[in-house]
Amino acid sequence: MGHAHRLYRHGESPVHRLPPHCKLLAAFAFVVVVVSTPREAVWAFVLYALLLAGAAGLARLPARFVLKRLVIEVPFVAFALLMPFVVPGEQTEVLGLTVSVPGLWGAWNVLAKGTLGVGASVLLAATTELRALLRGLQRLKLPPLLVQIASFMVRYGDVVTDEMRRMSIARRSRGFEARGVRQWGVLAKSAGALFIRSYERGERVHLAMVSRGYTGSMPVIDEVTASRAQWAYAAALPLLALVVCLVGWTL
Amino acid sequence: MDPVNRPSADPARNPPPSLEVSGLAYAYPDGHQALFGVDLTVGRGERVALLGPNGAGKTTLVLHLNGILDAGAGTVRVAGLPVEKRNLGEIRRRVGIVFQDPDDQLFMPTVREDVAFGPAAGGLRGTELDERVTEALEQVGMAGYGDRPPHHLSFGQRRRVAVATVLAMRPEILVLDEPSSNLDPASRRELADILRSLDVTVLMVTHDLPYALELCGRAVILSDGVIAADDRTQSLLCDEELMRTHRLELPFGFDPRSVKVT
């Protein structure tokens, strides 16, 4: 895994080099613009997709890489596919199936906007390291407690998983096999024990933090700054999208 | 501060001891009394081992040194500065505690950020901060590991980084809680070499008696909440009667008399 998370793809592209808070804001603005586009302007969504593809190209992300990560959307797709059959309204026939017109539009709406949103997130995650994302959030003045919680998740996720694995080995070493409902009690107790262990670790970590001068806020160790040019570069994607959106509303 | 008790000599030439604990007593909120009047002075540059059976109050004592626990009675001074609420920031910079589990100590996403945490909390920024981090990592031989996440290091490496995280604060006294626990013999020796190379006062809490003998010229035994003995480490370990009284045992086959202490 190296030092990065699985969504990250190491690179030296101009998109990779952008400061994290610029990318965060750009991705967020892009999603907001996409969501506020009228669903009837089908061509607008095609343009958005092309814009995203262009950004992915600049970031030198292979199409396969991006498409594979879009798979996370599948549960939502399933939901969207259901809509034409359950939403009441005017009926029409597609491929011999009776479906509702508002349902079709609803499905298209969820599918198009969802895919574009996931695409923007994949792009952000693939070009920004987790640590940088956290620094970006800190810079954007997200409530510091939330940033700290996220950063501890990053740090201690593996530690807790490891603890869980050791407990599972200990269980199995004493002849335990999770075969059915009757064993759920044991699993629930293990989960409880894991929670208590993590809670106690939290207390010890807090002690170690206080001992090194923690007084409630994380000191800024790496200042993230962005030049005007970097802001402009990052703003290109949402601004172009905004133009498309405005045209979509006026047409 | 009683002026009569202050050293009369020039403090620059005759610095106050790194650590002065006097009459320290403490009872936990549930009523269990852990310390009954501890007196302990550790001079500048000394390395002292704090020995004692489980439940003797060692951890409780350590948590008083940087004001995590408030003394019920008695005082603690670090290089002359009393441990009081208004001094806590400076006290925590002066007292570097290395906790037993490096996973508790290393809580930042990367080694570099973790080592930077203490000095950054103290207000250091920019190149000064970078220099401090590099210096601390070099002192423990981990200079090339700044960008690694702590959980990708070996246990011995993590322990060394944990030492660096407090060295970066340029502490007056380094307090190590069981520094040799869970280390393989090679990591144990490497850590000993590092600790010997540092120019800093050390208080080492340990059950590892050979390690205490190897690193600390002086040792104290904390037992039932008081300092029961304070002497050269070798003399303490050779006193079989004393050792038995305080449930201290040497590892099989280890004879402290046979060791040449420098």
What would your notes on this structure say?
The complex is a heterodimer of chains A (251) and B (262). Chain A has 251 residues and is mostly helical. Chain A has two domains: 14-137 and 225-250, no CATH class; 143-211. Chain A has helices at residues 14-17, 20-35, 42-58, 63-69, 74-86, 101-127, 130-139, 144-173, 184-211, 228-250, and strands spanning 91-94, 97-100. In chain A, strand 1 (91-94) and strand 2 (97-100) form a beta hairpin. Chain B is an alpha/beta fold and 262 residues long. Chain B has ten helices and ten strands. Chain B has helices at 58-65, 88-94, 102-105, 111-121, 126-139, 155-167, 185-197, 209-215, 233-238, 240-245, and strands at residues 19-27, 33-42, 47-51, 73-78, 81-82, 95-98, 173-177, 201-205, 218-223, 226-232. In chain B, the strands form two sheets. Chain B has a six-stranded mixed β-sheet with strand order 6-7-8-3-9-10, with helices on both faces. Classes of the chains: A mainly alpha (251), B alpha/beta (262). The A-B interface holds A 3, 130-131, 134, 151-152, 154-156, 158-159, 201, 204-205, 207-215, 219-223 and B 63, 66, 68, 89, 92-93, 95, 97, 99, 101, 103-105, 107-110, 113, 116-118, 120-122, 125-126, 129, 147-152, 165-166, 169.
User: What is the arithmetic mean of pLDDT of chain B?
Assistant: 91
Q: What is the H/E string of chain B?
A: EEEHEEHEHHHHEHEHEEHH
So, the CATH homologous superfamily of chain B?
P-loop containing nucleotide triphosphate hydrolases
CA gyration radius of chain B, whole angstroms: 19 Å
- Strand arrangement within the widest β-sheet of chain B reads 6-7-8-3-9-10
The largest β sheet of chain B comes out as: 6 strands, mixed
> Tell me, what's the shape of chain B?
globular
Please state the structural category of chain B. Answer: alpha/beta
- Number of helices, counting only DSSP H or I runs of 4 residues or more of chain A: 10
**Beta-strand proportion of chain A:** under 5%
Order of helices and strands of chain A: HHHHHEEHHHHH
Range of helix content of chain A: 55-70%
Please give the oligomerization state of what you see.
heterodimer
Pfam families (chain B): ABC_tran
Organism (chain B): Streptomyces triticagri
GO molecular function (chain B): ATP binding; ATP hydrolysis activity; ATPase-coupled transmembrane transporter activity
Subcellular location (chain B): Cell membrane
